[in-house]
């Protein structure tokens, strides 16, 4: 099945109000900026989607990408490991005002919860977080004389991810560290939407090099020159651009 979609707007058209959205990226590395901004464009035009739960490594920086989603009031809840990173002013202001909820998850636990969601594993046990506020209210069991905290899987309605190369069937490769959470999120979401820098015909990717098989991909949109979050923030960019 050909997974190619004509435009970013078409690719994100089915993200609904109240959806849980996984967004790839480790800071700006692997962040699907164009897909995120297309979702913001739709919100500004129609008032939807809103009330989103966003799952990401961090809570955005500056005034672009995830931070711009939060600034527009689209996000009701963040599930992340690093709500405070380089320039988290948007999330911080809204959180302190009680306008956004936060579920803080240790980074390794976050990755494993997403992996469990994709693998169909409802819960697992980890020693991480035991004895801290993060374990409050969670079941604890002892294995080999050590206490472990039960953590539940994470699944999503939609995953927005960025890949380096994809073929028409949705098979993907990634560029170095931009791979990060993307393969796990593709497996854990009901619908996976991918922006790719290069599109090739089936057979154009060595099967041994495929990281995410096309069975986990629903929509593929070509973005040949993707923006980098750090570059945008160094330039003082805001999305949408504020004009006089």
Question: Short summary of the structure?
Answer:
With 244 residues, the protein is of the alpha/beta class. It has helices at residues 8-11, 33-46, 65-71, 89-96, 107-119, 182-188, 229-234; strands at residues 20-23, 52-55, 75-80, 101-104, 123-126, 140-143, 146-152, 156-167, 172-173, 189-200, 219-222. A hairpin with a 2-residue loop joins strand 6 (140-143) and strand 7.
3D structure, described in words:
It contains seven helices and eleven strands. It is α/β, with parallel strands linked by helices. The protein has a single domain (8-124, 152-235), classed as Glutaconate Coenzyme A-transferase (3-Layer(aba) Sandwich), CATH 3.40.1080.10. Strands 1, 2, 3, 4, 8, 9, 10 and 11 form an eight-stranded mixed beta sheet that branches. 42% of the residues are buried. The model has no long low-confidence stretch (mean pLDDT 96). One of its GO terms (molecular function) is CoA-transferase activity.
Chain-wise SSE layout:
Elements: H1 8-11, E1 20-23, H2 33-46, E2 52-55, H3 65-71, E3 75-80, H4 89-96, E4 101-104, H5 107-119, E5 123-126, E6 140-143, E7 146-152, E8 156-167, E9 172-173, H6 182-188, E10 189-200, E11 219-222, H7 229-234
Parallel strand pairs: 1-2, 1-8, 2-3, 3-4, 8-10, 10-11
Antiparallel strand pairs: 5-7, 6-7, 8-9
Helix pairs in contact: 2-3, 5-6
């Amino acid at each position: 099945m050909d997974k190619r979609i004509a435009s970013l707007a078409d690719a994100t058209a089915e993200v609904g109000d109240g959806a849980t959205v996984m967004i790839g990226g480790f800071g700006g590395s692997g962040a699907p900026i164009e897909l995120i901004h297309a979702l913001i464009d739709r919100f500004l035009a129609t008032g939807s989607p809103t009330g989103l739960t966003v799952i990401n490594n961090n809570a955005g920086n500056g005034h672009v990408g995830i931070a711009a989603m939060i600034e527009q009031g689209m996000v009701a809840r963040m599930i992340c490991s690093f709500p405070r990173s380089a320039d988290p002013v948007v999330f911080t202001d809204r959180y302190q005002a009680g306008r956004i909820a936060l579920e803080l998850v240790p980074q390794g636990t976050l990755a494993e919860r997403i992996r469990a969601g994709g693998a169909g594993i409802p819960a697992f046990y980890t020693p991480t977080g035991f004895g801290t506020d993060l374990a409050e209210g969670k079941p604890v069991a002892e294995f080999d004389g050590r206490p472990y905290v039960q953590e539940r899987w994470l699944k999503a309605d939609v995953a927005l991810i960025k890949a380096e190369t994809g073929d028409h069937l949705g098979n993907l490769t990634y560029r170095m560290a931009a791979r990060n959470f993307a393969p796990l999120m593709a497996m854990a979401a009901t619908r996976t939407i991918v922006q790719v820098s290069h599109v090739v015909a089936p057979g154009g990717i060595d099967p041994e090099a495929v990281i995410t098989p096309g069975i986990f991909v629903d929509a593929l949109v070509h973005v040949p020159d993707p923006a980098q979050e750090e570059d945008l923030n160094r330039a003082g960019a805001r999305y949408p651009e504020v004009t006089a």
